[in-house]
Amino acid sequence: MFVCHGNICRSPMAEYILKDLVRKQGTGEKYTISSSATSDEEIWNGKGNRVYPPAREELEKHGLSCEGKRAVQLKKSDYEKYDIFVGMDGANVSNMQRIFGGDPQGKIHKLLDYTEKGGEVADPWYTGRFDTAYKDIYKGCEGLLKAIERGKQGNGNGQGNCF
């Protein structure tokens, strides 16, 4: 489960990038990959907003479609449904810990911790740099997938992983 503040820019970009990476290597059926928000700011009357147009356009530049994706809010019950939660920045990590009431199984991580660069994925909502966010998210997803393949993440039960 990828997580950001509103689930309209960074986390859906990560969701569709990783889905594409596992599809290309022929392992897509092994994973459940989703994204969600720590806030409800992009959810109105129970219906989430679509992916923010510049984020959608950046994905489309790379041949990826997020058609039909709408913002959803992370719930406490999600903790038992997924093997790992990947936030885009420290605020996302703190908010996930608040929502879950902690992280007893060590499931919460930051995406760029899977890269040599480390740090945080800058929010393109504020920076306007959707191209930079895409590049950072892509590198993070590549690193995450390598970590999974090396057995550094996941549920260890041999039945695939949920992200």
Kindly summarize this structure in a few lines.
The chain is an alpha/beta fold and 163 residues long. The chain contains 5 helices and 8 strands. It has one domain: Rossmann fold (3-Layer(aba) Sandwich), CATH 3.40.50.
Please outline the helices and strands.
Layout lengths: L1 E3 L5 H15 L6 E2 L2 E3 L5 E2 L2 E2 L4 H9 L23 E3 L2 H11 L7 E3 L13 H4 L2 H20 L11 E2 L1
Helix pairs in contact: 1-5
Low-confidence stretches: 154-163
CATH topology: Rossmann fold
Q: State the distance separating the first and last CA atoms.
A: 4 Å
Count of domain modules: 1
Radius of gyration computed on alpha carbons: 15 Å
The helix count comes to 5
Task: Provide the residue-averaged pLDDT.
Answer: 93
- The CATH architecture comes to 3-Layer(aba) Sandwich
Succession of helices and strands: EHEEEEHEHEHHE
Across the major sheet, the strand order is 3-1-6-7
How does the helix and strand content classify structurally? Answer: alpha/beta
3D shape: globular
Portion of residues within helices: 25-40%
Write a concise keyword list for the protein shown above.
single chain; about 160 residues; alpha/beta; Rossmann fold; four-stranded parallel beta sheet; two-stranded parallel ribbon; globular; disordered C terminus
